[in-house]
């Protein structure tokens, strides 16, 4: 019999809104930088989080996009991280914040940190909406974490299952009945 997909609300739009505003205030409170803070949106999962986060900032910012792919398409990471879209800005000497949807095994963030640090930024901070510590394979420094969650597969608010569900305004747990 075909499996039925079911999404159970886990973090409502109001929950997300409140926490994202708090995270925005934390970034806003960073010491002033000589040049605008560089916020890197990690495509595609971070798009909704990124858009809401930057709306909460009044300080000068530069917004840039970095595409990475780590999932083969299902609910398990392949472990091999691939750059699908590179930055259009030289970040040498700049203060950078990586904005990520979720840190699961840590392999993607570890790759991103090595890749970006090799470009000589002045500082790198990490802002992730979700963190699943139970599945960690490699420890990565996380400056701000929105929600620490159990080992469940979540979709919505940018996160997908086989490219679907990214448009949901909330985060839900995916069930296969
Ligand atoms: P990591 O490399 O830390 O294992 O995984 C990072 C990437 O895997 C995330 O950017 C995200 O695209 C994907 N990922 C990890 N956990 C989940 C999840 O629960 N739901 C979805 N939709 N993607 C996930």
What key attributes describe this structure?
alpha/beta, binds guanosine-5'-monophosphate, 3 helices, 177 residues, Rossmann fold, 6-stranded mixed β-sheet
What does this structure look like?
With about 180 residues, the chain is α/β, with parallel strands linked by helices. The protein has helices at about 15-30, 45-55, 105-115; strands at about 5-10, 35-45, 60-70, 75-85, 95-105, 125-130, 145-150, 155, 170-175. The protein has a single domain, classed as Rossmann fold (3-Layer(aba) Sandwich). The strands form 2 sheets. The chain has a 6-stranded mixed sheet with strand order 4-3-2-5-6-7, with helices on both faces. Strands 1-9-8 form a 3-stranded antiparallel sheet. A hairpin with a 5-residue loop joins strand 3 (about 60-70) and strand 4. Helix 1 (about 15-30) packs across helix 2 (about 45-55). Guanosine-5'-monophosphate binds near residues 104, 107, 108, 109 and 161.
Brief synopsis:
The chain is α/β, with parallel strands linked by helices and 177 residues long. The chain has helices at residues 13-28, 47-55, 107-117, and strands at residues 5-11, 37-43, 61-71, 77-85, 95-103, 123-131, 144-148, 154-155, 171-176.
């Amino acid at each position: 019999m075909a499996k039925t997909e079911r999404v159970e609300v886990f973090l409502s739009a109001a929950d997300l809104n409140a926490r994202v505003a708090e995270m925005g205030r934390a970034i806003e409170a960073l010491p002033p930088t000589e040049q605008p803070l560089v916020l890197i949106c990690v495509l595609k999962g971070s798009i909704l989080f990124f858009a809401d986060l930057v709306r909460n900032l009044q300080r000068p910012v530069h917004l840039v996009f970095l595409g990475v792919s780590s999932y083969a398409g299902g609910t398990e990471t392949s472990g091999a991280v691939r750059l699908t879209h590179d930055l259009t800005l030289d970040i040498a000497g700049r203060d950078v914040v990586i904005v990520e949807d979720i840190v699961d095994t840590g392999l993607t963030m570890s790759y991103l940190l090595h890749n970006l640090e090799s470009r000589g930024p002045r500082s790198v901070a990490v802002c992730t909406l979700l963190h699943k510590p139970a599945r960690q394979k490699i420890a990565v420094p996380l400056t701000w974490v929105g929600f620490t969650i159990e080992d469940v597969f979540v979709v919505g608010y940018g996160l997908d299952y086989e490219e679907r569900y990214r448009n949901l305004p909330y985060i839900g747990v995916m069930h296969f009945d």
